[in-house]
Amino acid sequence: MSSGPAVLPDVETEEQTRTRHQPPYHVVLLNDDDHSYQYVILMLLELFGHPPEKGYQLAEEVDRAGRAIVCTTSLERAELKQEQIHAYGPDPLIPRCRGSMSAELEPAE
Questions:
Q1: Residue 12: is it exposed, middle or buried by C-beta count within 10 angstroms (0-12/13-18/19+)?
Q2: How far apart (Å, rounded) are the C-alpha atoms in residues 60 and 78?
């Protein structure tokens, strides 16, 4: 009887990793008359990393259309970004400003 090393038969192990993609969501910044372009541009830079030029374009869109999509991401991250917008604070350049801007989430189609 030979007591050599045991050899196991080849077993194919295919891991089927199926990544479930979450549907994306838009973070939509809503217009109001209590925040300056400078506030919007700085907020978009700090929270989303948008350069000043892009921030200005989005500030114009919010002012003109009443809303602008500032980010499209997973629902979890969109909720975080919405909370960050709501917690950003008042605009120091406008004395009547009492708080942050508003944002809503909507499914991206």
A1: exposed
A2: 22
Distance CA 21, CA 95 (A): 44
Cβ-proximal residues to 72 (8 Å cutoff; 6+ apart), any chain: 24, 25, 26, 27, 78, 108
For helices 75-86 and 37-48, angle between their N-to-C axes, nearest 10 degrees: 140
**pLDDT, tens digit (0-9, with 9 covering 90-100), for 5-64:** 666 655 554 444 455 678 999 999 999 989 999 999 999 999 999 999 999 999 999 999
DSSP state letter for 23 = P
How far is 107 from 73, CA to CA, in rounded Å? 10
Class of domain 25-104: alpha beta
Q: What is the DSSP letter of 17?
A: -
- Contact between 15 and 98 (Cβ < 8 Å): no
What is the strand order of the sheet 25-30 is part of? 67-73, 25-30, 102-107
Give the bridge partners for 106, in sequence order.
26
